[in-house]
Amino acid sequence: MRSVRARAALGATVVVALALIGAGISVLLVLRANLTGQAELRAEVVAREVAGQLALDVPYDRLETRDEDEYPVQVVDEDGRVVAVSKDLEAISGTGTDRVVPVPSAAPGQGSGSGSDDGDDGDDDLADDDGGTPARGEVDPDEPDFTDGTATVDGESADYRFASVRATTSRGVTLTVHAGAPLAAEQEAVGTVRGAMLVGLPVLLLVVAGVTWLVTRRALRPVEDIRREMAAITASEDLGRRVPEPDSRDEIARLARTTNETLTALEASVDRQRRFVADASHELRSPIASLRTQLEVGAAHPELLDVPGAVADTVRLQALAADLLLLARLDAGERPGRTTLDLGALVREEVSQRVGDRIPVTVSVPDSGDFEVTGSRGQLARVIGNLLDNAERHARDSVTVSVRTAERGDVLVEVTDDGAGVPADERERIFERFVRLDDARTRDDGGAGLGLAIARDVAVRHGGGLTADGAPEGGARFTLRLPSAG
User: Fold this and answer.
1) What is the distance in angstroms between the CA of the first residue and the CA of the last residue of the chain?
2) For the chain, what is the domain count?
């Protein structure tokens, strides 16, 4: 099944069906046990009444039983011979013998050879220690035996629950009384309940399935609205649209909010990519156009070819292409390397290679200190180089770079210049791509506006950060923070 509603309805129906079947079976078993117990009690009462009469030496043909048509009685002696039956008893089973005609026998007081005539045997006056033969003139006090059987009384057959009680006459004759209680009421009650369950169970399952279907449909309606809106967004490619958010505070509402947050992030990413492509195209157009113009002029008038200008434009074009490639790799989620390196040594190495700087760079790196970090050596060198290039571009007389350890163990690299500084409201904006402040918007002096953006992206992907603030002596101070390798 591909429908969540159908699966939910089917699952709920199966669970309810299993629960109802289990409960129904339990109810039937308990009901049958209770009704059978009541039948056993009635049968025991009748059996003990007859056994009490036998213990008092009432003759067999004078035994009195209640409701002989409802409670059949059979009395047998120790040898299994039937000595008395209730009136109109025509057939019986489940009592050990199916005979319903008493055999000729002496009266209870005469015995059948099982006791002495003079009553001298003292053992006949005592009950057996193992719960066997009761004492003379008494009824066995132990729990009776119960069996299921059938009996035919006055031409009608039915099922009965028989209770077997033993009694001993005053002459020591042990007799067993089998009295039955009808099970018709129990069978009728169980059958009625079972029939009601068989009729009601399908109806109840249909109601459960229908209610589950409707409730699930209502609960999943916001999901369908979200799906429909997402399909429309996909078809129209309009990332400005948002899915409807239900007023509930359940999982579906959270799904809608998360979906809208994802669409917002996706829209911002797409807009950023579009701006990036547009700005990159604009930045590439100028050096390419300048280089083409110089080459065309050189082709037509070799004596007018500006070779240094062409080389400068080529170098600038190459640096811009490298920056764009690095940004593309960062946006693609490229993870930095896991090389352990000394950031102080890397700073010294980068400064030593800057032989053509307009302003000499002052380096302050303590000889003793743990400045090891983990990451990509090439990318971190690029960050330091971009910070130094930015400082050289804006400094008047001095550029300083220092390395130190922060209180919580991070390694800090601070690049300071004595230029005009960065206005407080622009200190976050300068890290956006292709952003150049008013005093550095010329392409010759201001660059393409990618250096600081690249530096912050690399720092963040290394688990650190890059911030800008004012230097104590004036100018700007850029602080690179990286987690220590330790």
Assistant:
1) 55
2) 3
